[in-house]
Input
Amino acid sequence: MIRRPLPQRALLAMILALLVLSLVAANLGAMRLSIAVLWQAQDEALRHIWLNIRLPRVLLATLVGGALALSGCVMQGLFRNPLADPGLLGISSGAALAVGFSVVLPIALPAVLALYVPMLAAFVGSLAVTLVIFFLSRQGNNSLSRLLLVGIAINALCGAAVGVLSWISNDAQLRQLSLWGMGSLGQAQWSTLLATASFILPASLAIAFLSRRLNLLQLGDEEAHYLGVDVKKTQWQLLILSALLVAAAVAVSGVIGFVGLVVPHLVRMWLGADHRWLIPGSVLAGAMLLLVADTLARTLVAPAEMPVGLLTSLLGGPWFLAMIFRTRRETDG
Amino acid sequence: MANLLQAKNVTFRPGERKLLDDINLTLAAGEVVALIGPNGAGKSTLLRVLTGFQPPDGGEITLAGRPLTSWSGDALSRKRAVMRQRSGMAFSWAVEDVIAMGRAPWPEKETKSVVQEVMALTGCDTLAGRDFCQLSGGEQQRVQLARALAQLWLDGQPHGWLFLDEPTSALDLYHQQHILRLLRRLSLMGTLSVCVVLHDLNLAALWADRIVLLHEGKLVANGTPQQVLNESTLQHWYQADLRVFNHPEHPVPQVWLQQ
Amino acid sequence: MKRWLIALLAMPVIAAANERVVVIGGDVTEIAFALGSGDQLVARDSTSLHPEAATKLPDVGYLRQLNAEGILAMRPTLVLASAQAKPSLALEQVASSNVKVVTIPASNSLDAIDEKIDAVAQAMGKTAQGDALRKQVHSKLASIPEKPLPVKVLFIMSHGGMTAMAAGQETAADAAIHAAGLQNAMQGFKRYQPMSQEGVIASQPQLVLVTADGVKTLGGEDNVWKLPGLAQTPAGKSRQLLVVDDMALLGFGLQTPDAILALRKKAEQLP
Output
């Protein structure tokens, strides 16, 4: 017997939990600042810091966490495999390579642009890989399995290239590259937040509209076709949208692992595989996970900060293991 | 014309070889048609072409008078359903939700009642609430059949064309019989046309109204079991040593292999 | 009148006493302390390990992974950031929060030390102390013999797990070697390359330069000679090795003149 909570109630609970967590996170940080600073008349400077540094960071954490989890959810649904994750098709590897180039072989740019170079580089790298995926996904039969192989190849090639760059880099560059690979939300400010949101929000909405079709794809490509789904079109739409989510997330925050793989998995165990609930559930859960992880990242070793990708793995890993053993007991019994 | 699926001079040639060569076939409501033939004869391919998954290279297929290609995805899904041989799901789905997927081309409001009706019909009501992935092969087939029927369900009956690709190959005797009996019963309602690819000639003889024999892409026989299943025809096309006898209790031929 | 004058003169002192300064960059921190501003420092970055007192200050993280809130939590009035930390969104955010952010130049040359001292002194209002420090550095640099010495030096960088790398052109090590009036044994390539046996033997170094950290990861001085090709070089045959502190030699900060002098002296003493 499958026993599941009512999805609408569960989602409502998650929304409330996210709101509470956001409020808590907005009140925690290296500085002792709470939201109360908004209405207290005293310190303009503190208000400025809360509004321009703390708040955007909290919002960015929810945005990026939601995007990564959603992307993983789509990948798992598309490939009908619980082990799929956003990095499957090589997008974050492409971004890593582009960032590697920008760090180790820098080109002279005007100072204003230079600030955003790693983000722009990461986005360009992601886009390049996305284009490859786009063209491949529109061709021929069996393109999904071909895409998988291409993703493996891209991951391997980019990994090797980044390795070469690390090799010829000096200490500081190497350090910077590896830190980027561990992820950080330190680039949060209103401009980067709005730029990221301008990709993530529309892409997420578009994916939500494809929920029913993603459900039907679970029966199989041919079966979905017989149920009236334009399988090819739905697949490449989902691929591009998922790629956009990853590209935007990785550009602003570097590589944050684990969220895309495990969050949809956990939510599916709880709410079921119906994407109409799984999609919003994954977004909310991903947002919460990254919010908690980032709050810890910027408070545990304050005034320094830990790479948030380490924390998502440290937080999520044991929990994931616990869930696996719990369900194993349930099914063996 | 109104309720026929007609294949006229259908040819399918994806590469060098012609997988289907000049096939002419009509499927009407109220009958069970079995597609038989040796391996590589093109049975599954023909199914894919008849259902519209593969467009033919030559010839035409019309459904209720209109070419198959002119039907929209949703409209076609309400007219024809396909149940394939193997049907795994990667994630846990409740049985009712899998069956409910068959209602995708239809408006939402009748889904619950239709799902209940088809579950009762196919004997899936005992599986209510269970996880599809945890079911046995036979139970999963039953659920997939219920889903396909849900796709065609209108006013308490299935309407349209139901295609099945070797639905019995993974089933035990009990379930083989159960499914084919059910298909027979459904076709007798008069609004459903069943086209089933079968490996087992004896099952075809017992439950099909008509048998279509394919060989290397060509349609070489089309008639009642008595007409098609005779020794000379079968030995010629299957190249196997066999004998055909009459079933002791039913007026159908049965095929027995020689040692 | 006299009281006003005293008060006026005292203002910089009072103001300076209320300064809260965050220093970013090991060389910047060193200079700040040397200028006598140690009591005004409230935080530093993870590369600031000299002098000892610096390590007692809160650490705001690696200089290329700063976060604005962390720095602002220290309530700084001034941030001195090495150019190595730039470009940095975090520092931009700090600047836009009404904190003065001063960039200290960071190039690899002996003149750079001068520029660094000057910039820090200006920012902290310690120009007198700055001048004195500059004179000190100049006299140290002057004691480095001008005449170029035809001694070939090979600088080896080693980190745990990675193959040892030799320094080519456009590296801080190359600049240091040239500053000592010596020659870099490795010619014809930029940045770092892994040591190849043939390449090392062909370069014929007479002196091998390794950092203290490098020797540690190699597991002792004896293991240095086990690296590809070294045993067959002139340096290897007579075991001519100089171990230096990496920040001292490569950081082009206050300790660099002494380190370069030590390098020169060692080269002069070669058989």
User: Anything to note?
Assistant: The mean pLDDT of chain C is 86.
